[in-house]
Description:
The complex is a heterodimer. Chain A is an alpha/beta fold. Chain A has helices spanning 45-52, 94-102, 111-117, 134-146, 164-179, 191-197, 215-218, 237-242, 266-278, 293-301; strands at residues 5-16, 19-30, 34-38, 60-65, 79-82, 152-156, 183-188, 200-205, 208-213, 225-230, 249-253, 257-262, 284-289. Chain A has ten helices and 13 strands. A six-stranded mixed β-sheet of chain A has the order 5-6-7-3-8-9, with helices on both faces. Chain A has a four-stranded antiparallel β-sheet with strand order 11-12-10-13. The longest helix of chain A has 16 residues, at 164-179. The radius of gyration of chain A is 23 Å and the shape is elongated. Chain B has one domain (32-273). Chain B has helices at residues 32-49, 51-70, 81-111, 114-118, 125-153, 163-191, 194-211, 223-230, 233-245, 253-273. The longest helix of chain B has 31 residues, at 81-111. Chains A and B meet through helix 2, helix 3, helix 4 and helix 5 of A and helix 1 and helix 4 of B.
Amino acid sequence: MGEILAVEVVDLVKTYGQARAVDGLSFEVPAGKVTALLGPNGAGKTTTVEICEGFRRADAGTARVLGADPRDPRLRPRVGVMLQSGGMYPGARAEEMLRLVAAHHAHPLDPDALLARVGLVGAPARTPFRRLSGGQKQLLSLAMAVVGRPELVFLDEPTAGLDVRARHDTWDLVEELRTAGVTVVLTTHAMDEAEKLADQVVIINRGRVVAAGAPVELKGGGADGELRFRAPGRLDLDQLLTALPVGSRAVERAGGHYIVSGTVDAAFVAAVMAWCANNGVPATDVRVEQRSLEDVFVDLTGSELTP
Amino acid sequence: MSVADPAGTLAPAEAPTRAPLDLRPAPGAARWPRMLGAQTRMELTLNLRHGESVLLTLIIPIGLLLFFSAVDVLPSDSRDSVDFLVPGVLALAVMSAAFTGQAISTGFERRYGVLKRLGATPLPRWVLLAGKTLAVLAIEVLQVVLLVAVGLALGWEPRLPGTAAGIGWLAALLVLGTTAFSGLGLFMAGTLRAEATLAAANGVYLLLLLVGGVVFPLSELPGWLRVLAEGLPTAALSEGVRAVLADAASPGAGPVVVLACWAAASVALAARTFRWE
């Protein structure tokens, strides 16, 4: 079961006028796992997801969803979709909209129980869609994605506009989906969300995949931190690494900035400092930092993630 | 409960219910009659809930019938004005439900991504369109019942060419007219922006009300306009219904052919041009 792919995207290209929204993008989604497509606004996440949902055609490359062409109508019952916005009759009440989508499926969840689960009970359930708050609209859209008991769900920015509590409820629901064996693909520009939820993170920037892997791998092969310092350029980093535990890494950045990553504990720091002292290296600005996905993103793209 | 809390920042008194949900995959499409029933019910509910839709499909036709039967602006000929008006207003009612109302609502459904979102469920497109058609037909039944009741109260005396023949002709005209107007409405909604559809559908409604033989006879129009108007679906429908209900005759080939041509052309056009997003 480990190697079954729910989604396979190869060299995908989508151009709008002059702009290449998606520019040769490839990634794989293992079945039964949570995969986060992480990137800033305009990175091409929504276009990629909408191609996989069958809404748009790629200009080049291929996407396979559950082994089929994304536009194959036989996929519709098997795939749940949460759009980034809209998709509801403005005058329909939340409960009416969810019941409608439930009626399209053979074995749907109980709409009332699901509404209660996402916190749309009482007045909000009977409020027309256009008068719901942004967060309530998101929660209804999430409920509509899962009500048909799909094998695979695409959630486009599922927590955008949610308050802290609704955000955590959404995270809980995503984890329950994974436990139940549902494959989840979500897009986000929130690092903490990707780190918390995803088994696999695909970092996308300017229509390309810049890195993919488990959050812990992306953050440096199981390392939980990094040590940064400044020193004159062209240190012999291979020699430094011989003094450190296997799996540590060291890179030199412009301006004599060095980043040494690994299991940064006291012994690690002591080993680096001892090596500097023994080799006459005047290290300054020594800092120990926990490396986050945000750092990975900045390192990979040279730009901030925050939109 | 009583305090508005749009941001949802106030915690409710009781913990949220965490009834266990069986999220394990069990995908499958419902059978189409269930989907069709759900779509039709939703369309009908929304139509009857929206004030502007009720105004368009029920209140304006009834209001026109009451107004023009009380204020006699018609040329005084042998027949009662209500006998002339009821068939015309029935045609107007069909146009308002099948064309104007459907164009506007479908235009905004497209704009708000409803059609896109429903396209991601197992709902086949033909069921979505069939649901719209059934809802339009249900509204037309309601319109006919109300307009006939108001007409009879105003002293209308229908003269049918035999009960079976009369009902048969009326049903045929209603179906042809509904098809023609639905095709035009969906063509407009599927190609124009929602705001443009709103403006154009209302403009066409007003135009066809004036030159469609609804409240003024076609014979009152200048010659060139009359020739033009006779080729329009509203005039064909109102003249056809009037022939059956007022003259106890068959509608004749003219109106039936005009409606059939509009039906075939508009449905073909809508099918070729409709965009779901």
